[in-house]
């Protein structure tokens, strides 16, 4: 058992300049349907990854930036406890608006700003709005949920303090000189932190049901000319098989399956080389070590 506070990564919101390009990538290339919702006067695109309201929200904007990272908390009591921990650590925790709460399908929603300026949300409750999701012809499951994100930026020490000491994530493993993987449940990791000059999301991982689903997505990506930024491969630390596409906002979407689970007796360690095989980068890997 990790902690009874944060249970999993719930959703990610993005400000994007080209909504139609995102819809095309999600639908035509990755086989992921979308729904539309209102947020104020703007229409928001919600990706159908599973039966819940959304895991990825695309907000029209004049800039391409992360809008919010949302974590699901077990209960209102745990939300209060985490709020006290955040306040004691010097964070200002605010209540979300009723409209924000409704869009996310949450019964309780609070937020704060992390050390690099990103909005982090803590939500209680998830709204189920469907029994299944639309997929291309073929009858295969395809995407099944949101797996993890990698947050790159300065102030890695402060970010580690936030996630490890305040929010009670556990360090799973790491790779020198500055890449750290953290979990809040039995999955190998729900967030990784990496050092970079400017804050950004390096990638979001979309969980798939099987290697066949990943392979079919890979075929569709090649057939539609999607920018495959990192080729098919298997990671050394979590053993996931995946490939990456560069999305219209400039960062990566990882299409993966098969990540391991770890128990409470797991010992953090430096896992050395990044991959068992594959994962060749189209551009220079910003997290490459001398050994890789």
UniProtKB/TrEMBL annotation:
Question: PROSITE patterns, from UniProt?
Answer: EXTRADIOL_DIOXYGENAS, VOC
Annotated ranges, domain VOC:
8-125, 145-258
Keywords in alphabetical order:
Aromatic hydrocarbons catabolism, Dioxygenase, Iron, Metal-binding, Oxidoreductase
Would the keyword Oxidoreductase be found if you checked this record's keyword annotation?
A: yes
- Name the cofactor(s) required for activity, per the record: Fe(2+)
Tell me which InterPro entries the record gives.
Fosfomycin_Res_Enzymes, Glyas_Bleomycin-R_OHBP_Dase, Glyas_Fos-R_dOase_dom, VOC_core, Xdiol_ring_cleave_dOase_1/2
- Quote the SUPFAM superfamilies the UniProt record gives: Glyoxalase/Bleomycin resistance protein/Dihydroxybiphenyl dioxygenase
Read off the Pfam families from this record. Glyoxalase (PF00903)
Q: Which Gene3D superfamilies match?
A: 2,3-Dihydroxybiphenyl 1,2-Dioxygenase, domain 1 (3.10.180.10)
> So what family is this one in?
Belongs to the extradiol ring-cleavage dioxygenase family.
Report what the protein is called.
Biphenyl-2,3-diol 1,2-dioxygenase
UniProt organism field: Amycolatopsis ultiminotia
């Amino acid at each position: 058992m990790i902690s009874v506070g944060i249970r999993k990564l719930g959703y990610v919101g993005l400000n994007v300049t080209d909504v139609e390009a995102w819809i095309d990538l999600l639908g035509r290339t990755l086989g992921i349907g979308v729904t539309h919702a209102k947020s104020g006067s703007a229409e928001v695109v919600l990706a159908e990854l599973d039966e819940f309201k959304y895991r990825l929200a695309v907000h029209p904007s004049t800039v391409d930036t992360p809008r919010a990272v949302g974590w699901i908390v077990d209960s209102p009591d745990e939300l209060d406890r985490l709020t006290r921990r955040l306040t004691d650590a010097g964070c200002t925790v605010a209540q979300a608006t009723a409209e924000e709460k409704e869009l996310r399908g949450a019964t309780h929603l609070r937020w704060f700003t992390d050390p690099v300026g990103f909005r982090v949300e803590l939500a209680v409750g998830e709204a189920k709005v469907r029994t299944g999701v639309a997929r291309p012809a073929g009858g295969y499951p395809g995407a099944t949920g949101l797996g993890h994100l990698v947050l790159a930026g300065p102030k890695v020490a402060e970010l580690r303090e936030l996630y490890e000491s305040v929010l009670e994530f556990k360090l799973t493993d790491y790779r020198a000189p500055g890449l750290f993987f953290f979990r809040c449940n039995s999955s190998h990791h729900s967030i990784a932190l990496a050092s970079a000059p400017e804050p950004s999301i390096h990638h979001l991982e979309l969980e798939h049901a099987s290697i066949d689903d990943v392979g079919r997505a890979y075929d569709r990506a090649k057939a539609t000319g999607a920018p495959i930024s990192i080729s098919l491969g298997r990671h050394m630390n979590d053993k996931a098989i995946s490939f990456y596409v560069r999305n219209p906002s400039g960062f990566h979407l990882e299409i993966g399956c098969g990540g391991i689970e770890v128990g409470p007796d797991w010992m953090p360690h430096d896992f050395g080389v990044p991959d068992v095989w594959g994962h060749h980068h189209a551009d220079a890997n910003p997290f490459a070590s001398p050994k890789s």
